[in-house]
Amino acid sequence: MLLQIGPKEGIDAFEGGIARTAQRPALSALSALSALWRAVAAPANGILAAYAERRRINRAVAELAALSDHVLADIGIARHDIERIVRNGRDAVDRHA
Fold first, then answer.
1. What φ, ψ does residue 62 adopt, rounded to 5°?
2. pTM (two decimals)
């Protein structure tokens, strides 16, 4: 049965006595590389997410723009409102109107 008494001092207590252990480094090489990777990957993930969102918007705009004026009118969308509706939703207020 191992019970850590003082993690900063590096002392472990176990049945039968006390043993001193070597102080562990704050960051191992693997955890340092992991922290570096997270610092580098976080902005890249944001860029990739923004790129994926832009592609999604472009696809939706292209699909709606390919519809006829009659079909757009049936679903309640004017051709000039397609991009605003895709970006902000149908209930968004048109600030330019």
1. -65, -40
2. 0.55
